[in-house]
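Need the bound structure for LLP, inputs here:
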Amino acid sequence: MGNFAYTGGRMQTDGVDLAQIADAVGTPAYVYSSVALEDTYRRFAAALAPLDPLICYAVKANSNLAVIGTFARLGAGADVVSVGEMARALAAGVPADRIVFAGVGKRRDEMAAALKAGILQFNVESEPELLALNEVALGLGLRATASLRVNPDIDAGTHPKITTGSRDNKFGVDIASAMRLFETAKNLPGIDLSGVAVHIGSQLTDISPLSDTFAAIARLVRELRGRNHAIRRIDLGGGIGIAYQGETVIDPKDYARVVMETVGDLGAKLIVEPGRSLVGNAGVLLSRVVYVKQGEARRFVILDAAMNDLLRPALYEAFHEIAPLVEPPAQAKLSPVDIVGPVCESADRFAAERMMPPLEAGDLVAIKSAGAYAAVMASSYNSRPIAAEVLVRDGDFAVIKPRQEIAQLFADEILPPWLTGGAHG
Ligand code: LLP
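Answer from helper R.:
Posting the output first, comments after.
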């Protein structure tokens, strides 16, 4: 099973003992479960099947080719926010006509590359971007298919740093400006503006902001059609949260029902852009305890993973469950510890005063829910090599990205001529 649960007292996924992976590839390492990826995708796709949407996996959540490829094989498209992500999606086997290009700051060279690749649509987020896209398309003798991202000014009720649909956020255009931009686009021969897009935030656990948003989109689409704008596609974005700490999350069936009730009867092609909900709980970050240090006020469990491998706790005060790979006995005494990494920042802390069973140097732990926004947000800060990534499937596993070598850390750095002469000046 792909559940990162204990079997015979040892944490396993997809029939593989995680300690075996740690021994083979070392730590820290991200480990993803194929069963979890595939089952989660299938469950989501099945719930939405009556609406026949295009599921564009938000590649930013986890852009390893093997992860994108797993979804591509199941029929997914991709939501990308840079030419880098577009190249990954294409390399992983996503057909160009299933790729949506989002983002507030697309450069002209990125627009040109995406136009040449023949992607499905651009999600345009401002008037200057609309004008730039028109020019780039005309320059190539092409016509860009686009949707306009609207900002409905609805509070997603999530962490402020991952809220995107309020008027104080840089994303999208307000509803009144949307009306005006559709008029503008009529006079832009390089653009076929024929869709509406929205995304109000990430890690939503309450469906009502989504249902309000989709209802606002439905009103907008009706009004635009009333003014003779052909609206053929509605992109509903992503944002469905996962359980990090036993939260009740949005059930795909409820999500499908809300979509059906709000925009289901408009006859538009629906696009959804789930990221985290497809991958978040399909991965863990394996790490080994380096030291246990008793401080004056607190006890610190120092891991070999750090904020450069998983930034979410430092950046968003995010909770990630942490569990030893060997199941602690039922009577194990829990005591509060700070679980930290070796990076020279006090923010390098995965958990504060977390109640944990006894941990010793050398013990292996899994930091859970690390399938989304973990490896993709990694850096080599403190010159720590980027960790390995592993995909498990059917009792077997494959390294899908080897651990970076020390030499690779600076292999592309160049000493300028005045530093290579050797002589003192
Ligand atoms: N579509 C658009 C336009 C987006 O901006 C995003 C995420 C998604 C789809 C996918 O959203 P999801 O289904 O994953 O919620 N690094 C943060 C999350 C940033 C999300 C950015 N946009 C975190 O670790 O919580």
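Comments: The radius of gyration is 23 Å. The mean pLDDT is 96.
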